[in-house]
Amino acid sequence: MHKFDEMYESQPYAGAVIRSHYQRYDQWLAKQPGEVMRSRREEAEMIFRRVGITFAVYGAKDEDGAGTERLIPFDLLPRIIPADEWAEMEKGLVQRVNALNRFIHDVYHDQEIIKAGIIPAEQIRDNAQFRPEMMGVHVPHEVYSSIAGIDIVRAPDATGSGEYYVLEDNLRVPSGVSYMLENRKMMMRLFPELFNQNRVAPVAHYPDLLLETLRAIAPPATPEPTVVVLTPGMYNSAYFEHAFLAQQMGVELVEGQDLFVKDDFVYMRTTRGPKRVDVIYRRVDDDFLDPEVFRPTSTLGCAGLMRAYRAGNVAISNAVGTGVADDKSIYPYVPKMIEFYLNEKPILKNVPTYMCRNKDELEYVISNMKDLVVKEVHGAGGYGMLIGPAATQAEIEDFKKAVLAKPDGYIAQPTLSLSSSPTFVDAGIAPRHIDLRPFVLSGKEVQMVPGGLTRVALKEGSLVVNSSQGGGTKDTWVLEADRQPGTAAKPASTPSQSQKQSA
Fold first, then answer.
1. Per the domain annotation, does 45 fall within a domain?
2. What ranges does the record list as Polar residues composition bias (predicted)?
3. Does one domain contain both 133 and 245?
4. Which of 22, 309, 335, 395 lies at 20 to 30 Å from 283 by C-alpha?
5. Is there a domain that residue 256 lies in?
6. Per residue of the chain (503 residues), what is the pLDDT tens digit?
7. DSSP H helical segments within 375-416, as ranges?
8. CA 483, 489, 494 angle in degrees (round to 5)?
9. Is 401 in the same domain as 480?
10. SS3 of 259, please?
């Protein structure tokens, strides 16, 4: 199988040709003693622990029986993307997210794509994330997923060159952007000289873009909308991120018990009395949002929230029912969505996908499972999947039984040889597989900061990058194009307005 490394044109690393966009960094790295890099790694871990950048691991217990919190390992070596590659990827991301938002609007309104015979009606009707309560509901700018996290991988093509593929669309409550921001802050703290030597596009203004995006979907006639971040609470695995983003945007972090609905308007309780809420950036799943409509026993949401939402008196981001488009059983249809809604050819490719609901494709998957990655359509976080080449015969046989029992619950894909990136591990610098999650913001317009969160599979040979499965993260550098002679240089990164306010 061909391999592609982001920094080196061949493997093994010793003596390999350095790709042009990594050459300046490689010259710097060659001068760094191993003990200095190790001490920097220890310093980063100490700071991350002090700041509290951890995530809870569901189901994991420490020796006292309490839930465990882990630090997501941070790698000191950045992943670097040249300006021209990023420009093309950005165009593809804008195209894809536009089509997905058009699709969700269509699902809850005229269902033209079903009438055209492109997507079977049962794929929508039987989808666990389809919310009939959203039929006919208007959302501002027809944007359902204001914050999308699109997982992108690079794999070698037949010539060994790297080609980008979309692996997954995360449109409900995508997480990880706080690690993107904190990783950059850490790199600038540990290695300030690198940002003088390299024109790295800034990411620190993401909270400003996020707040702008959220304000853009506020109900009409609210010139100064009140935005809140709704969290399930401190025991949620991504609670650090919820608190971080609220603080960076300068808005309130609330739980369901802090909100109430009166006369179809949402209010939060404050020390000065009730305050009307216009936009809720929710980090709570649909099922728990409103006990009047969804799960009656939920204490994480707010009773009456859907009444206020349907009346157009509050905006919820991402919109209720958005998950209908990020289900793995809908993923294979996204290229057709782009052609149907935008009349364009997809810029970013899908990974070839077998739908086990189709008899011929099911037979192929069952016969070739040892060579495939098989995923539950509702699975997430690296759970509910089988990586055939790394599985035992017993695991494969068990998975075959599960797939045959419920074929429409699974898809399968070829095992991609994900690109690798140099990573600082205990033995020194070694290749580890990576992916990339850019965060795409859709309000009145679609915008994003350059790059995203690079996740890295720290176990040698592993293809699973999820933090819940032992993965780590890297800073992602998009190198800005060299400026024309006579133009002023932009700073490598500038503090966002919200950071200035919180400093």
1. yes
2. 493-503
3. yes
4. 335
5. yes
6. 568 999 998 766 667 789 999 999 999 999 999 899 999 999 999 998 888 776 655 444 444 444 456 678 899 999 999 999 999 999 999 999 999 999 999 999 999 999 999 999 998 998 889 999 999 999 988 999 999 999 999 988 766 678 999 999 999 989 999 999 999 999 999 999 999 999 999 999 999 999 999 999 999 888 899 999 999 998 888 899 999 999 999 999 999 999 999 999 999 999 999 999 999 999 999 999 999 999 999 999 999 999 999 999 999 999 999 999 988 889 999 999 999 999 999 999 999 999 998 888 999 999 899 889 998 887 665 567 888 888 889 899 899 899 999 988 899 998 888 899 999 988 888 899 999 999 999 998 999 999 999 999 888 877 777 666 668 999 999 999 764 433 333 433 334 333 433 33
7. 393-405
8. 125
9. no
10. strand
| 351 dihedral zone (left: phi>0; alpha: psi -120 to 50; beta) | beta
Amino acid at 104: I
Same domain, 189 and 271: yes
Q: What is the 3-state secondary structure (H, E, C) of 70-87?
A: EECCEEEEEEEECHHHHH
Structure token digits, residue 110:
């005229």
Q: Is 142 left (phi over 0), alpha (psi -120 to 50) or beta?
A: left
Same domain, 254 and 392: no
**C-alpha span between 451 and 468 (Å, rounded):** 22
User: Between the CA of residue 101 and those of 130, 145, 148, 349, 479, what are the distances in Å?
Assistant: 14, 6, 10, 18, 29
Cis before 318? omega within 30: yes
Cα 227 off chain centre by: 22
Q: Are both 356 and 345 inside the same structural domain?
A: no
Give residue 379's domain range: 352-415
